[in-house]
Specification:
The complex is a heterodimer. Chain A is an all-alpha fold. Helices cover 72% and strands 1% of the residues of chain A. Chain A has helices at 4-27, 33-58, 66-83, 88-114, 120-139, 141-144, 159-177, 180-190, 192-197, 202-228, 238-251, 256-272, 280-294, 307-314, and strands spanning 304-305, 321-322. A two-stranded antiparallel sheet of chain A has the order 1-2. The longest helix of chain A has 27 residues, at 88-114. By secondary structure, chain B is an alpha/beta fold. Chain B has a domain at 82-186: Rossmann fold, CATH 3.40.50. Chain B is built from 10 helices and 10 strands. In chain B, strands 6-7-8-3-9-10 form a 6-stranded mixed β-sheet, with helices on both faces. Chain B has a 4-stranded antiparallel β-sheet with strand order 2-1-4-5, covered by helices on one side. In chain B, helix 5 packs across helix 6. The radius of gyration of chain B is 19 Å and the shape is globular. Chain B starts with a strand and ends with a helix. The chains are: A mainly alpha, B alpha/beta. Chain A binds chain B through residues 172, 175-176, 178-184, 186-187, 189-191, 193-202, 208, 254, 302, 323, 325-326, and chain B through 50, 52, 71-73, 76-77, 81-82, 84, 88-94, 96-97, 100-105, 107, 109, 111, 114-117, 121, 124-125, 146, 164-165, 167-168. Residues 13, 18, 36, 38-44 of chain B line the site of adenosine-5'-diphosphate (ADP).
Chain lengths: 327, 252
Amino acid sequence: MKNNFKYTAFIVLLLLVTYFVFVFLISSKTINNYYQGILMLIMINVMLAVSLNLVTGFLGQLTLGHAGFMAIGAYVSALFTKVSELPDILSFVIALILAGIAAAAAGIIIGIPALRLKGDYIAILTLSAGEIIRGLIIYFDEYTGGSRGMKMIPAYSNFSNVFWIMIITIFVIYSIIHSRHGRAVIAIREDEIAAESVGINIVNYKLFAFCISAFFAGVAGALFAHYNTLLDPNNFDYNYSIEMLIMVVFGGMGSLTGSIVAALGLTALPQILSDFSNYRMLLYSILLIIIMLFKPSGLFGTHEFSIMAIGGLFKGKKSKTKKRGDL
Amino acid sequence: MPLLKTENLGITFGGLKALSDVHVEINEHELVGLIGPNGAGKTTFFNLITGVYTPTEGKIIFDGKLMNGKKNYQFNNIGIARTFQNIRLFKGLTVIENVKTAFHSSMKYSPFSGILKLPSYWKEEKLIHEKAIELLRVFSLENLINENASNLPYGQQRKLEIARALATNPKLLLLDEPAAGMNPSETSELMETIDIIRKRFNITILLIEHDMNLVMGICEKIFVLDYGMIIAKGVPEKIKSNPKVIAAYLGE
Ligand SMILES: Nc1ncnc2c1ncn2[C@@H]1O[C@H](COP(=O)(O)OP(=O)(O)O)[C@@H](O)[C@H]1O
Ligand SMILES: [Mg+2]
């Protein structure tokens, strides 16, 4: 624990450097609009993968409706900013919070029936819930534009705000996992009966995880809406939920750094090999099969990639990863 | 007033009476043995008095409170902790995380403090880290804190499970065949540890044991279950010579 301060300072420094490097590259047009677009999508996908990992990797419930929560956030925020007459920044901040709250509420509503189910049934329930959300968006076309889409959403998202909100998302979920609340969530994944036997209210903590996870999917949706400026309900179909799940599985269920790396790689790769983007799902499937064959626990398993450990490498230590929890 | 009292307690599984008409009383600071042949209903009794199963008849009174209708985790919060016959550790977690997880209810900080890492977070986390190590030291596990629980040998897994149960700060500790799978020297060492923790943590212990002779040494009081009924209760000397008990064990 004694290195904690140094470690935190180092991480903050690294983030600031990364941030300013990208700001410089963008303002000097070294990163053009096209690549900036990919960058935005990467950051949004990182948020989605990390938040999904809370439920799938840490709580241990296989869910397939994350795109639905994202859609709720996207539409709620866009509906708000389109009519809001507040100053832009204030309007955007309120929209982000509303997006998160609306999605979190949906997370709880879907979480309640999910409590009674196990395994595959939760996957089916959440998959249908995601599709129902999409159906409702199409049905209420008066407000949402239905399948014609919603247009003219103010372009409030930019590299800076998406970057820092992504960092906040990662930080919050990381902190939760390393708190007593996170331990309760992880205990449920490990053994529900044992978790209850040590006094953990598993109903509360399942809903807690569903709620936090959906909250950040909603915020990611809001960022997406105000970056894309138009929304099509088909952006949020179950294929997208599956993509997010693949990112989580790929990076390792229960590894946040794994989710970050996987979201980055799996978003960037098909975009950069643009000829390939039509075969994205095919590429994903092949990669997933390879992962399942050679490393079923994902790239990182439940381990976290640690910068300190890289430092350790230079000092001749063996371990490249750090076990969750031993700070 | 007894710490735990059951009245007419029973449960039926689809027509099969697994347990019926169980009246027992356990007083504070007692070390009580629950014995009986395989399938007699001992584990089922534990499952009833920890809220895993809901009784189909009778009452459970703990510390003067009627426990019927309470949830599993509430039984623990009120002061009953247990181990399982088929060890149920958090296998993917380290030894110390297993214990820290069990301190959950004794910690107070909110999710908000946890996220922002406010002083209450640091203070409580530091405290339970120390408490966890202290507890693991009782079971000589302090050098294995970062070991994965599933990597421990069987005997140490059993000890870790007891440590985890103790971390919830129970008044009554239930141990389901804690010596199962241990060799005789490990077993006698464990029985000593059990006696030590009772005194040190000032708790009441109810212990299931398949082997009658084992519990005779340390328990002050023994309940004998056979076919879901209590066939004898009392001090070890009386139990030993009770013809019903002898018959139950011979008939096995
Ligand atoms: N959940 C259950 N469903 C059906 N039968 C059960 C259940 N739990 C226990 N039983 C039955 O209750 C009886 C007592 O089992 P148990 O309490 O495990 O015995 P033991 O004394 O060996 O611990 C057995 O016949 C067992 O099959
Ligand atoms: Mg049993």
